[in-house]
Amino acid sequence: xxxxxxxxxxxxxxxxxxxxxxxxxxxxxxxxxxxxxxxxxxxxxxxxxxxxxxxxxxxxxxxxxxxxxxxxxxxxxxxxxxxxx
Length: 85
Prior knowledge:
By secondary structure, the protein is mainly β. Helices cover 9% and strands 42% of the residues. The chain is globular.
């Protein structure tokens, strides 16, 4: 639930850290793109992630940050893999 419903849960659980998270392409599964907006005053304004893999049965996911303030001229993307055990 943490990753599948991340866009709904995190702005409610941590409004000081997340202003909004919305799926701008796809249905939330692999291939979907989400944009995260951070509250005013945060050093980071936004991040855009593409969900590469989402395996609910094995509690794992892989996603790539494709845009955002964290990326610099030296970084094109950041890939993150998460597995819960």
